[in-house]
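Raw record, unedited: CTM1
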Amino acid sequence: MYFHQVSTTLFYLGTVFNSNAFRLRTLQLTLQLRHLMSQLVPDGIKIPGVSDTSAFVNWIVNLGITWNEKVTIENSKLGGMGLFYTPDAKEDGKEEKLLLRIPSSSKLTIYSLLDTLTKLKQRDVNCFPDHQLKESSLVVAFLDILKPKTETLFLISYILAFSALSNDPESPLREYDTYMDILEATFVPDETTVSEESQFKECLRSYMQWLYKEYTNLSKQLKDRIPDFDVNEMLPFSKYYQLFQAVRSRTLEIPRSLENESESSSNSTEFTTDVSLVPILDFVNHSSDNNAYFDIDRENNDIILKLERLEKKDKKFEVTIQYQQEDHDEDFFLTYVNSLADQGDGQGTATSETTIVWITTTINGLSTVMSVLYTQTFMSTYTDAAESVPSGTIGLGSISGTVGGPRVYDQTTVTNGGSFFYSIPFGIAGISLLLGML
């Protein structure tokens, strides 16, 4: 098995040192990169959001991602792009195959994005102390207004803020440009992509209406806080919706050792999971009949994708993983649920009470896994049980007795004999005494 990785350092050295040796090495690395590009992304394949395939492959290499030479990224019958594997004649399918290795540092989590925010704050203080509109201030404003309550929503809030800050060519946020382009081009269904009226389309319509209310609130509050920033221009609703859905569709729960990540976690038995965006791994589509799985390498916390032991295959096939244990069609809501629930305070400031769920449906002939707004309705039966239910005897058969009479329980009174807690008068004064206020 061979894994491909190429360093691009000498590309830059070749421009500095005018020597034949460096020019030759630069040419060799260029040819090697083109070879890698043609193997990972075959000729004629267009990845949405990627305008330069060589730059895309170079970005993957710089992230430290390595891949099996038999792996390719191609168009999928399941929708969008997918990861494929081409076996050779000698493979018998009895061994697991390592397909991808992705450094933990390449994934996007609430922790890695917090590190990016810290860098932005330091840069703003050092380079732009007098600027009114600072990148870090805008990111913080997004987080404060959107008030994310789950890891997924934190990721979405960061990505939305990063998208609105795309003007400064020297910003640390430029490292995310390639991935942001992919997110902005990821297929996400909306009203226009579902042709027939159905309960699914109505649910999707309600979801978009809810998102628009959230967007309107964000726009208004940002205008009040930062008058010079026009969110409608920098982040129109179409892009807001696109990124919101794209992030939701690409997140994965990645295991993480609770041991110190700088040390080996091979002996650790305690793990948690981080909701993460993982470049390249998120090209792998979902199937209830999956043939691969992802995990972490306990030696170095790399994220790895492995092909399971399979029956021998003699031609190219798509690699799939399972996002959740259960898989249903659009008539059922899946158990993989993320909630967005805010209770109103009764003072006219009620916000959304919503639940987002994953469903599997078919759009334009393609199986699609997506998140939608869950709404629950109940059929009205009786408004008053006493008047609606007729009187009579039911279910007694040959047993004599009564039905529906009051049940009386024995009562025990606890007195204050010797117990300090029972002897306290539980009025306002008693509570104050417990709190040490009197």
